Structure formats: structure tokens, C-alpha cells
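Example for reference:
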Amino acid sequence: MRAHFDPSGTPDGLLAALHALTDEAAIGGLMVLACDANGWQPEQLDPILQACEMPVFGGIFPQVTYQNQNYERGTLLIAFNALPEVACVHGLSDAEADFDERVEAATEHWPEPPEVTTMLVYVDGLSSRISALVEGLFANFGLENNFIGGGAGSLSFQQKPCILTNAGLLADVAVLVRMPIRSLLGVTHGWQPISEPMKVTGAQGNVVMTLDWEPAFDVYKRMVEAHSGQEMHAEDFFSLAKSYPFGMTKLGTEIVVRDPLMVAEGNHLVCVGEVPEGAFLRLLNGTPDSLIAAAKKARELALPEGVGEEAAASYLFIDCISRVLFLGERIADELNAVGPDQPVNGAFTLGEIANTGDAFLEFYNKTSVFSILFD
């Protein structure tokens, strides 16, 4: 893996960086992690992406990280030596879609898998059926390899083209990338429950309508105000909500965090990722120290003794953008905690995709995914 960062964030800068990487050495596949503030439009990007001779994949995110520094503008390019297999799954908000079938159809042209594989997965983070896609990935591929990825998109929370492929810049899709490389990973979040469980009595996709048969926003507002001592308003919802995610308990895993993004229809809560009716949620809260300690733990989980010394290993860090908003300037402490010996590159996402060992594959929120890739 070779990383190159273009601070300009322009299409011309992307093209120049691509040429620089190609001139250095042959590229098997190219991952592009770009910032939303670059302001890219399909008409600017599509000619560049469609002209790429190697497989290209990635997304546009609120921020990226390059060598332990977070950036709101710029483009991170990561060139892989290994040749990836790439597929695209469309209609990620389609209420009628069977994603077991769609994943199977999208990847049926792939040859037999190599002995060792890692799956990179980037999705439109504002699509409404990401968890269904993740279940489709599990149904088709199981947990024989690691999954690493996350949700692309904008903090404006307006859905727009944000997934990069050889076909161009796309919306409401997932790009699936099978790499013939070994990987290690750790997944943690650092948020703690501060309430009793509440039953989701009304939900559709990623929208929670009622909790314990009361309007969801009314319940959430009451609990957050009681704990924080501050008033919560629908118009300025996320400024306080970023500190109070929900937690879903799932068998054999850490609590799966769900991030409430905004209020809809007066008293519904729109989350990043599905919340099934009948699930039980608890209100969570954390401190900067607990989040930074959790990120450090993710690194420790991924790093058996001696592994990080191998020259071929590179660190890829997928971290939730709301952790940046929560930590503020202390995001530097988190990045230094996960990359003390070797700098990390990656993206700050709208939701994270990873498996926890051989136990579970999940779409997370407000979570740190630290991975080591052996390209």
C-alpha cells in the first residue's frame, strides 16, 4: 500500500496524484477517500473515474485522516499492489429489495476466492437499508474473511452522490471490494449506558417513531435534558444529540451504537442505520477519555505481539465523524493513541462496517475500527 494526500481537493489534484502514483509503480487497485468540502460533482469526477485503467473505489466523507491528522478538505489516495474484485449494489434504500439476492447477483462474476481475503465495503451512509445490505453480505460470504468499511456522505445530511467507482460518482449504492490480502482488526466505541432499556414500539427502516408507545423525540428529549441539564430543540438537534447515542444490545457483541441524526415529522428520530421494531434501546453517554481509551483498545485488539513490525503492514482507521464532533481538538489524542508507532490513514464516516472476530458482522455508529492490512 502506498498513500498520497492531495490537500487541494480539486479534480485536477486528484488526476495529478493518480499520475504520480502510477509513475512510481504499477497499481493493482486504487482507493480514493475524499472530503465533502471538496465539492465534487459527477460531471467533474465521472470522466476521471471512467478513464481509470485500474479498479477504483472509495467515497466522499465529512473528513479523512492522513498520517494522524484529520482534514476537512483534500483527497487521500491509497494504491494497492493486490488486484481487487469490485462490485456495486444499487438501490440501497429500496424497501422491497432482497439484499441477499442483490449481493449474490452483483458478485456472481467474481472468480473463486483466494485462500486469504479481506472485504472493503463503502456505502451511502444516508441510505435507509444499510443493515439489510450487511445481512446480505453475511449471508453470501459468512465470516471467513474480515470486513472493513463505512458510510460515505455529508454532515449536511442531504443525500447526494458520494460513492466512487469506475462507473462514476454514485448515490444510494454500496461498493464491495474483495482484496486478496490478510488483515487484522479491532472494534470498540467507549460509550456507556445511562438508562434502562426502552422498547422500540414503532419504527420503519432508520426512523424510530415510538419508544414504549410514546413519541420517540419526546422520550429522547426528556432523558437527554434530565442528564445534560440543557434544553434540546429539534432545530438544533445534533449539537446535543452527538453526545447521546442509542445502544442496541445484540447477542455476543458489544452494544451496537445507533446515532440519532435529526427530528422528522415533528417527533420521529432519524438514525444512521436501521433500528428494528421490537428492539430494545438504552441511552448512552461517554467522555473524551472513555472514547480515546476505547480507540486505543481497538488497536490493541488488532495487534497481537510483533505483528505491527512487519514492513508490509499498513494501518487503515475507520472512525465515526460524530466522534470528531464530540472530541473536538482531542481527536488528535485519539489519532495519536491508535498510531503511536506508525501513522494511520483513513476516513471519518457516517457509520462503520466491521466484524468482531468470527462472531458478528455489523453496521455500527460512533465506533472506531482499527485495521492492519498486509498488501
User: Anything to note?
Assistant: The chain has nine helices and 27 strands. The CA atoms of residues 161 and 171 lie 4 Å apart. The longest helix spans residues 288-302. The two ends are 6 Å apart (CA to CA).
